[in-house]
Amino acid sequence: MLSDHPIPIPFILRGQEIAAQDLLYQSRDKRIEFSYPDPRPLLDRIVLSDPAQLQRDFASMRVSEIIDFLAEAGKAMTLNHARMEQACRFSVPFSALPESIVRGSYDLIPIVFSKLALRTMVENEIGSKYLDGWVEMPYADKIARRRAYGARTLHFISGNVPVVAALSIARAALIKSDNIIKVTPNDPLTASAIVGAMMDVDPNHPVTKHFSVVYWSKELQDFEHELIQPRYLEKIISWGGALGGINSTLNHGNLQASGIDVIALGPKFSISILGREAFQSSAEIEQVAKRTAKDAGSFNMESCGSSRFHFVQASPGQAMEYARRLYDHMQHQDPSLSAMPKNFPADLRDEINATRAQDDFYYVVGGDRNEGAVVVSLTGELPDFFPMHKVVVVIPFDDPLQLVDRIHPSTQTVGIYPETLKQPLRDLLVARGVCRFISIGHTVDYSIGGPFNSTEIMRRACRWILDESYPSQWELPGFYLRKAWQILKHHIL
Are 175 and 462 in contact (CB under 8 A)? Predict the structure, then answer.
């Protein structure tokens, strides 16, 4: 049964909020719907038709000023403020996550907008000097300078974890880009609330004026085709599988051929590799299972960093003991990180029960109450289902080097224990597509200011411009003396 009143989803267009209720979207279960403005007559306000306006607005604004502005707005991004509380409350019915995890993710948003996080982000990923001015390069035969400029960018925000919207918006603001944020039905309000907090500080600030937050359904193909054109866009950033929301005719190849740079960030999943040291005693198994339970259970496996497959250098008996302890720890986690799955698919439950019946091949712990389960493959073969909703697959192995050929190209993070196991595996697993290695217990703890899915997002999202000059004949003596000094300072001092 539908809710009595559709949840209103406002648009934010360059410092102004549009609250029309022209169109309706209905949730998959037909129980909830939201209303939103029709984007088609608003296209001219959504896009930045004059690219030069971007440079005029940010010509004299330094990154440090943007950080100050974002940090001030970040103070209003806690759940103590009405805008964020409403966004969180309205997002819960659409999210695949239980309310406790949604609220826990919202608690991370002010951290992203702290001065420390913003400075770390911009300096580690790109360097503010490249955004604030021209930086000379150490060439011996010419004067060459480069600078990073923001671009007109369309962001497809995934709705798996609300903090993703915060990360995309913060990065975009720091690099002085123009941004259209397309929200997703399972997280329709987070981005609007974040940009709304900026509006509350200053609706006419250059950062605020270069954000539009909108939604459109897949039925609005004509609007989508009109928007996704090189006359309006230079970059597309897509989180998770959100790019799949683009009409099929606008595939990667067509977009790249048009001159639009597509930065696709997923979807991916993560694994754990546990060497024999993890199984040298029951006490060690207990400690390892406690740490890997966080990797597997956090955000109910909605995060790319959630560890779904655990490869264990253990006997079948040790693997089963590990499975029991892992399951127990996964049932007793911080509810802001992990909770009873909200909607456990019936087909996944059937697959688990079918696997449970094959006790010569599999050992299953849990799964009776839709709470998740741990499935041990006694033969080393993968089950027929993909683990999700706090269902973990444990696969025993003998030789770590034999794992290399079993790594799927969509593997993002590998949690490894002990640390010494990283060195023989690291280079080999990179060749298989792995993007990140980390200690167990931390696979969902992403470092602010580091690469994500092998991509330095801020650097990639900029337009890098080069200015080169060659000296005339009478300038050469002084030119070479100056360049020699510059090269000396760059390489030695």
Answer: yes
